[in-house]
Amino acid sequence: MGVALALASALCFGLSDFAAGLAARRLHSAAVVLIGQLCGVVLVSVLALFVAAPNLTPVAVGWGAFSGIGTGLGAAFLFQAMKVGRFSLVVPLSDVAGVAIPVVIGVALLHDRLGWWAWAGCVIAVPAIWLITSGRGARTTPTAGAGWALLSGAAFALQYVALARADAAAGLWPLAMNRLVAVLTVAPIAVRRERLRMSRRTALLAIGSGILGTSAIAAFMIATRAQALSVAVVLTSLYPAVTVLLGLTVLRERLTRRQAVGLVCAAATVVLVSL
Questions:
Q1: Which secondary-structure segment (H or E) carries 238?
Q2: For the whole model, what pTM was predicted?
């Protein structure tokens, strides 16, 4: 059951990013984040009512709020990367940065101890980033969206590190606060840029992205209760494969051999570091 839920989480994350990326090509990325996170606030708040929270403290809620800054900015940067770049490249690139940076922070500031596989994953991340960003495509420049993707990974790293500091005994309330602060972070940009005017199709894509993203997190949290955490993390972290496959099949994106090798290295980095 835990494995199935972790895979469902990966599928939902991948579909969520794909839907948001399509919406961001018609709407400012901050507006897409705003709509998606508003849906997330409602869903997570409702779910939080049914999840035990025996030790809900201001500190746990505070960490959740702090992580929301990373969530809002990370999603906005990622969707902007998907707007100007290829889905099959920028999503794995963001994932690599989002996984590797928390490891560095954990070792440097939190005195974490890593196994050889995690160090190997960090080493592989360097050629992965270089290979992905150095390929040439017919319709985009080699680095189209790469900068935004790396920025999104750094912001998501803030999200991961802060959420990890929140006490699990606080239930889902830190996550609810995460979504709320993410909304507040991007709302000024979204309203100023778009005034929230959009087509029905774009609105549905943004709403679908928010529902799928929240469902993915819920599935992951349940999976960690039914399956070893390391297994759940590794399986969920494979979500970029969904977005990559959709980019290659639905949007007919093309990769060079160098970029294909880079994607393999990126997948290896995520799996090794997650272990």
A1: none
A2: 0.82
Q: What is the pLDDT of residues 74-95, one digit of tens each?
A: 999 999 999 888 888 888 888 8
Domain extent, residue 177, equals 2-274
CA distance 39 to 60: 22
Nearest to 28, CA basis, from 179, 150, 206, 253: 206
What does the pLDDT look like over 91-120, one tens digit per residue?
Answer: 888 888 887 777 777 777 767 676 787 778
Please, what is the average pLDDT of the chain? Answer: 82
pLDDT for the residue numbered 139: 44
Task: Give the CA-trace dihedral at 22, 27, 33, 35, to 10 degrees.
Answer: -100
Locus of tokens 């990373």: 70
The radius of gyration of the chain from alpha carbons, rounded to an integer in Å, stands at: 18
Q: Are residues 142 and 134 in contact, defined by beta-carbon separation less than 8 angstroms? A: yes
The two tokens of residue 18 are 């794909």
User: 71 exposed, middle or buried (CB, 10 Å; 0-12, 13-18, 19+)?
Assistant: buried
Question: Which residues, in sequence order, are CB contacts of 128 under 8 Å at separation 6+?
Answer: 92, 96, 262, 263, 265, 266, 268, 269
Q: How many domains does the chain have?
A: 1
pLDDT exceeds 80 at position 237: no
Distance CA 37, CA 211 (A): 9
Concatenated DSSP letters for 41-104?
HHHHHHHHTTS--TT--HHHHHHHHHHHHHHHHHHHHHHHHHHHS-HHHHHHHHHHHHHHHHHH
Q: How many Cα atoms occupy the beta-carbon half-sphere of 205 within 13 Å? A: 20
Q: Tell me how far apart the alpha carbons of residues 208 and 214 are, in angstroms, rounded to a whole number.
A: 10
- Contact (Cβ atoms closer than 8 angstroms) between residue 64 and residue 48: no
